[in-house]
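call fold(seq) -> tokens
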Amino acid sequence: MKKIVRLLGIALLLLIVVLLFNTFRISSKQMTDVVPMKSLSVNDSVITHLSQAIQFRTVSYEDVSLMDSTQFEKFIAFLAYTYPQVHQHLSLERVNTYGLLYYWKGKNTNLKPALLMGHYDVVPVVQGTEKMWKHRPFAGDVAEGFVYGRGTLDDKVTVIGILEAVEYMLREGAQPERSIYLAFGHDEEVSGRYGAQQIAALLEKQKVELEYVMDEGGTIKTDGVSGITKPVALIGIAEKGYTTLKLTSLGDGGHSSMPPAQTSIGMLAEAIDKLQKNPFPAKLGGAASYLQDYLAPEMPFATKLAMANRWLLSSVIVDILAQTNAGNAMVRTSIAPTVIQGGVKDNVLPVEAVAKINFRILPGDSVKGVMEYVKKTIANDKISVETISQFDSEPSPISDTATVGFRALHRTIKGCFPDAIVAPYLVLGATDARYYRNVCTNLYRFMPVRMNEEDLKRPHGTNERISVEDFKNVVMFYVELIKGS
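ret:
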């Protein structure tokens, strides 16, 4: 017995030594040799231009017939008038009428070009919520130190920020070392099929090979993440896949005074309940592991120990991440019932009830796997399951962090936002970057805007806005990124 106790004690001691060794050997991945950038003398005209851009109602709809093409044409004309240097020195190709592809020739054409992208379409304002806005959503009001309006965060901020940076550099007589493409889509909010997808197809047809692509995605989270109080600059190196399934339950109709043991609505409710009580398994690999590798050295000791020993403490890490909705979505395919329909009168049993469930698919899972998991989980032959999404997409590959593009982003962030911790992460939504897989393997997703948890609700929500200071920083960021690329 004593021998067993002794062996257990030795094993425990060895385990502690291994855990501590792994913890103390991890070192910071943050660049430390970056000199903070000097503030550019960005003129207040950049704020005026963003305000004016917001006033064009470039709203995209799934039903293309609802699109007000005159607003898109006026926006494009506005860009030509507002950025004369850009339109004099860069070539412009209009792709599929409203997609915009600019080309800026660099000094060294032996280098692969980079592509900076964004989209200028916006989502509509939900009917009935207009009164909830502090300032009208398409007025572009500048007040209380902010520019208000639809598109200030998603995503005219990127389009105007990039163009302001290029216009500034051209006025200064600057030319980038490597050639730069600027790609601006017009239908990202409804899949990007006619904008970004067509632009990417054109580049592929022209046999263009890109060094890196940067799209919108992560932001600088000013209230940190679990265990870290410093701002965290999140660079998306992969994104989740997307599918929506329709569940249809069929039951017996009739009078509500004589209901069966389970109605079609009851069956559907039970199926949804099963899905929510049986989430997809959590996985810590892939892009989530990159995030942990970058954040672990900056965390308090206990959390750092767990992160450094994922082989043993993965369940602890999952529990930590699962404390927030965003953290939970980082490690598993998410399940979100978004639409439910059934019944037309309170005393009539509906024959049919329908629910739509949206899934954001973790790398490692697949659209087909989601379908199989749902059927197995609900286990009810009276409920049909079918895909209805026109925009199904598989999870993206993971872009490397040991590349020219990622290092340029890392260095630029550190120069413009010295207090921020840089970390790669998994983008939970879908971006237009996914269409560029055939012309580039290094796809990154980042928007140089400081946002807290409350601000993250503003894109697609009410009172979308960006501070005057933040937008000037956006312009400065793109100037420095282009110089450093």
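Residues 241 and 361 are 4 Å apart (CA to CA).
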